[in-house]
Design goal:
Layout lengths: L1 H16 L9 E6 L3 H18 L3 E5 H12 L5 E8 L2 E10 L3 E11 L12 E4 L2 H4 L1 H7 L3 E5 L6 H13 L21
Parallel strand pairs: 1-2, 3-6, 6-7
Antiparallel strand pairs: 3-4, 4-5
Helix pairs in contact: 3-6
Length: 190
């Protein structure tokens, strides 16, 4: 299972980059929203490593990391990030680039029914993420304000790290015990 293999993958990554755990200053992870199991495994890994190495942790929004990918994919700003939350819902947020933080929140991460997105109230933006593909009615309703779409973009570890670095430098970290997932959904299943 991925939760067991993750430590092997971590060791392989460290070897590939020539890095040792004792060289790390901090840990960052995609805190969600997203797959319940994936977010839970990521949080558990940084909690375990953070406790073992006494390292601070920086939780990063998965939607913010997706927005970072969108900034590279298009010159259009801002970016509307959308992930399929299953059960007829989406994770949705709007971000603009920020020179200091990497992203600036224009609309907080939310869990919505696709029909709850107020497309008429949105400024023109570039759409990213597979949620746009999963709900074509949402895409069609928002088409007048979408400057483009890349539904194939996914959040990456590099974008999580890029967003975590300035926060670490400003001391915006949490203790490993507080490295908790951001589920957004009250009721979750694995």
């Amino acid at each position: 299972t991925p939760s067991r293999a993750i430590y092997t993958w971590l060791q392989e990554l460290l070897e590939e980059t020539g890095t040792r755990l004792d060289q790390l200053d901090c840990l960052a992870f995609g805190a969600g929203p997203g797959s319940f199991t994936g977010v839970r495994v990521a949080a558990a890994l940084v909690q375990a490593l953070g406790f073992a190495r006494q390292l601070p942790v920086v939780p990063v929004s998965t939607l913010a990391a997706l927005a970072m990918a969108g900034f590279r994919a298009s010159e259009e700003r801002p970016v509307a990030a959308c992930l399929d939350a299953r059960m007829g819902q989406i994770y949705f947020a709007i971000y603009a680039p920020d020179a200091e933080q990497g992203v600036r929140v224009l609309q907080e991460d939310v869990l919505l029914q696709p029909e709850q997105v107020n497309c008429a109230g949105m400024s023109p933006c570039f759409a990213v993420g597979p949620g746009w593909l999963a709900y074509p009615d949402l895409r069609d309703r928002c088409a007048p304000v979408l400057t483009g779409l890349d539904s194939g973009l996914r959040p990456s570890a590099a974008d999580v790290a890029a967003l975590a670095w300035p926060r670490f430098l400003r001391g915006q970290t949490v203790a490993p015990a507080l490295a908790l997932p951001n589920y957004l959904r009250d009721r979750v299943t694995s």
